[in-house]
């Protein structure tokens, strides 16, 4: 990529949860655009190193750091290490997330509820670190889900945990605007991520649920049916890819997006 196509040269970016899926596509995209990228992982250090290598091969600096959203100290450490290494933070992409537990409201346990909201608390404290340290004219983008607009049975706690992030972002946009910092949300629709159920559905392969207990099989069958319905109902006729989402994040972190703040971009092929 020529210098003119490296609009993020000189910018320092943290992309949380960038070992795989959407976060990996975002980290690699922003790296190709010239940004120095901090790749974070919860457990998959080898995948994080792979992403770092890919970004370095594309000509940008990159660093892998461990961070667990459930441990606020690790979030503070992430920012401290980034500032220590690169001297500043220009862009934060709050992408990291754990497994969503989709269960009827009557059946969700307190532990399952807490496991999702513990991650949301981590996003809040990542935003707090950004509020304290992000450079003037910086960019903050957090990932929510299009389901906060579409609604879906069994998703109440998960969607609630993401909806909170949308509200954190609206408030922060109003707090940081005077410094030229923009704060936005990207809400993906169903996005095909290698190795997950969405991928198996989108590529047309049947799910191998034979070793699962009966109720688990039934749950998966219903899930697959639901995904097919979503694909059929999507005006653009397919499920999303990580690159679709990275394209939108790339737009929001660009210099040209300086007049867009407090927005929630629903990157979902028109389903919302
Ligand atoms: N995929 C979709 O259909 C979809 C739809 C709507 C919204 N989203 C949102 O888009 C974002 C990315 O989704 P994805 O499907 O690409 O995710 P993913 O493939 O499951 O990847 C999750 C990433 O988060 C990291 N992570 C997991 N637990 C963590 C924790 N406790 N603390 C810090 N990092 C943690 C993982 O690191 P390790 O590899 O080290 O575990 C990994 O890098 C999420 O915010 C998700 O809610 C996704």
UniProtKB/TrEMBL annotation:
<protein>
    <submittedName>
        <fullName>3-oxoacyl-[acyl-carrier protein] reductase</fullName>
    </submittedName>
</protein>
<dbReference type="InterPro" id="IPR002347">
    <property type="entry name" value="SDR_fam"/>
</dbReference>
<comment type="similarity">
    <text>Belongs to the short-chain dehydrogenases/reductases (SDR) family.</text>
</comment>
<dbReference type="InterPro" id="IPR036291">
    <property type="entry name" value="NAD(P)-bd_dom_sf"/>
</dbReference>
<dbReference type="InterPro" id="IPR057326">
    <property type="entry name" value="KR_dom"/>
</dbReference>
<keyword id="KW-0560">Oxidoreductase</keyword>
<dbReference type="GO" id="GO:0016491">
    <property type="term" value="F:oxidoreductase activity"/>
</dbReference>
<dbReference type="Pfam" id="PF13561">
    <property type="entry name" value="adh_short_C2"/>
</dbReference>
<feature type="domain" description="Ketoreductase">
    <location>
        <begin position="11"/>
        <end position="189"/>
    </location>
</feature>
